[in-house]
Specification:
The chain is mainly alpha-helical and 419 residues long. It has one domain (19-193, 209-418): MFS general substrate transporter like domains (Growth Hormone, Chain: A), CATH 1.20.1250. Helix content is 81%, strand content 0%. Helix 5 runs antiparallel to helix 16. The longest helix is centred in the C-terminal third of the chain and has 33 residues, at 346-378.
């Protein structure tokens, strides 16, 4: 057997870690419901608001606001608690909240529910992402595990978005919310079976002074670690550029292509196919490729796709663009998160993930708030063009940053070391 094959980590290898398998199973089930809700809530708000692009943008921004307001604090708290318990409580709380959405007949209560969902997701995300490396046996397994988590996300995107379009077309939006609530309960049932204790140095008392010190310590960690700081800057600037495209893609269907909004789920399913294939390929073949190179190329591809949407008026071409969008998105996401998980120790990981989520979601909200109203005033095409140019520039501007430049100019690194 080739030595390279012996060194390669496999998907079966990471799935054989029982606690990781349980987290992965919970992840799979809850994502199926999430995709139903993601499509349903945008269409529901679109219907309740009479077709407002601004309110559709708000439906995307509402779950992100808690990341901005609570994110850094959530990271400090999550590091004090058992990550398994945090994930279970968050799942059950989100199940209760999403059950309420079908009873609303105006957009603002729906947006409020989305905000509350985001509050619990703000704690769930750093708990899950910081826990994954602790459920594996070596750092070499992290990229493959993250690839598997992402591949599963994209497979459930394919199934969930397709099912969402079918459910919405056949029965309306309300049943999707009830199904999502059930999936959160099933997810929690998997997570309670995780056996590993996921607490840093045991439980610690929550005091204002200790809370402040740990919050400041997380910020100082970024200041003192130029590679982690570069990851944060690149991710934030990139999201600021591309996030506004999300609400425009739904609005573009009736405005630019003259098609029914219900095909949105099928377009997202197409994107999910290429995201699934790309993330799987990265996990299998990309273990020796520098992660910063993937990140930059993925972001640049997203910008090119946005430019394509700006000039497209054809539904068949939209399916092609969604496929390319999925390829670029996965090329960025899988290496980006695995790079953080590999380079940050467990005692700082939740704070790093939370701050990253905070900055990215702040950037995303600003992009959403700008894109929706601008599209209402100037049109979808010009705004999508602006987004494409901004995202391409963000990708190129990442190359000189520490960590990134070493991946693109390895000869300079070797020359500096020799000197």
């Amino acid at each position: 057997m080739d030595s390279r094959d012996q060194e390669r980590v496999t998907f079966g290898q990471v799935l054989s870690r029982r606690d990781f398998f349980r987290v992965w199973s919970a992840h799979t089930v809850s994502l199926l419901g999430d995709r139903l809700t993601q499509v349903a809530i945008m269409i529901y708000v679109l219907e309740l608001s009479g077709g407002s692009a601004a309110l559709v943008s708000l439906s995307l921004a509402a779950p992100l606001l808690p990341y901005v307001l609570l994110g850094p604090f959530a990271g400090v708290l999550v590091e004090r608690w058992d990550k398994r318990k945090v994930m279970v409580v968050c799942d059950l709380a989100r199940a209760a909240i999403v059950c309420s959405v079908p009873f609303f007949d105006k957009p603002w209560p729906v947006l409020a529910a989305a905000f509350l969902m985001g509050c619990f997701s703000t704690c769930f995300s750093p708990a899950q992402l910081s826990a994954i490396p602790e459920l594996l046996e070596s750092k070499r397994e992290i990229l493959v595990a993250q690839s598997l988590m992402s591949s599963t996300r994209y497979l459930t995107d394919l199934l969930g978005f397709t099912a969402a379009s079918g459910v919405v077309m056949a029965m309306g939006c309300r049943p999707a919310f009830l199904i999502d609530a059930l999936t959160f309960v099933v997810s929690a049932s998997f997570l309670v079976r995780v056996t590993k204790r996921l607490v840093v140095d045991g439980p610690r008392e929550v005091s204002l002074a200790a809370f402040r010190d740990e919050l400041v310590g997380g910020i100082r960690y970024h200041r003192d670690n130029p590679v982690v700081l570069s990851q944060l800057v690149s991710f934030t600037v990139g999201v600021l550029g591309i996030a506004g495209l999300n609400p425009l893609l739904l609005i573009a269907i009736p405005r630019l292509m003259g098609a029914a909004p219900s095909i949105y789920g099928f377009l997202l399913a197409t994107q999910s196919v290429t995201m699934l294939l790309t993330s799987t390929a990265i996990g299998h073949f990309g273990q020796k490729v520098p992660k910063p190179a993937f990140v930059v190329l993925g972001f640049f591809g997203l910008g090119l796709c946005a430019l394509g949407f700006a000039f497209n008026r054809s539904v068949p071409v939209a399916f092609l663009l969604y496929a390319l969008l999925g390829l670029a998105n996965a090329t960025f996401v899988v290496p980006s998160w695995s790079w953080v998980q590999e380079s940050v120790p467990f005692e700082f990981r939740a704070r790093v993930v939370s701050l990253r989520n905070t900055m990215a979601n702040l950037a995303g909200m600003l992009s959403y708030f700008a894109a929706g109203p601008l599209a209402d005033r100037f049109g979808v095409g010009p705004v999508a063009c602006l987004i494409g140019v901004a995202t391409c520039l963000a990708a190129v501007s990442s190359i000189p940053l520490p960590g990134f430049r070493e991946a693109f100019f390895p000869s300079r690194r070797k020359g500096a070391a020799a000197a």
